[in-house]
Amino acid sequence: MASNQSALIAAPNVQDGIEYWNTQPASYDGVLGGYGEGTLPRIDALGSRLFLLHLYPDLSTIPSSIRPLQPQLPPRTRALDVGAGIGRVTSDVLLHLVSDVVLLEPVEAFVHEALARCRASTSSEPPQKGQPPWKGIADGTKSVTILQGTLQEFDPLNPHRVTFLDRIGYQSPRSFDEINMGFDVIWCQWCLGHLSDADLVVFLRRSHAALREKEKGKSVIIVKENLCQNKEDGSACTVFDEQDSSLTRSDMAWKSIFKEAGLRLVMEKVQEGFPDGLYVVKMYALR
User: Fold this and answer.
1) pTM, rounded to two decimals
2) What are 4-29's pLDDT values in tens digits?
3) What secondary structure letter does DSSP report for 53?
4) Cα–Cα nearest to 43, from 30, 28, 57
């Protein structure tokens, strides 16, 4: 059940949100609100990788103080990147750490830009300036599966209500077996504000059901989102943005939703190093 406060706040409209993002350039600058050309993308990606490695040190690809001497990993590790835009998190974070990524994005221009960037990574031609090839795609050691659809329609274990666009890179000999295989990492960044509280709880429950190796305490859901301030009394606060039809939630609002979805918060960290004047951005790890 959504909170009483949520009932008083306008709910996001899926189509209005998509229409807003269709007016933005399909570029780092477009998906990052004008901050794609500076240090923010690199700082964001580095903070995300370090946060994930702290939670799942087996994913470390180099000997380090956090990597187990004998990592216990499935034959191929899988990540889901939702609300993925042009594939920034997939290319800059997830492909550096996992074998296979499934990318979901509803906005037509964004998802086709992600598709074009991934396909370009199969070429031996020099990459365009500012568009390094996606790791592991050219040599076929890693893969990206690109889907178009909304989070409201998407079930990670039953992705039949979204549109399959392509799988690029490594080709599994039994690719249909992967549909219900689940994920080691489910990454949700700067997209969950387009879900109402009720839709968000449903999506998080579906995501939890899709985690692999839950009993081993390894697979994880990552939520990385903007925060508004809690109310003066410390209670949850949610703010509706008419421009893109989205919600910005406070720390207590997020934690209330996690609890309602039956998730356990195992780690939280504020992203450091962003320019002044932006919302606080926080990462939550959930199991």
Assistant:
1) 0.93
2) 444 467 899 999 999 999 999 999 99
3) H
4) 28
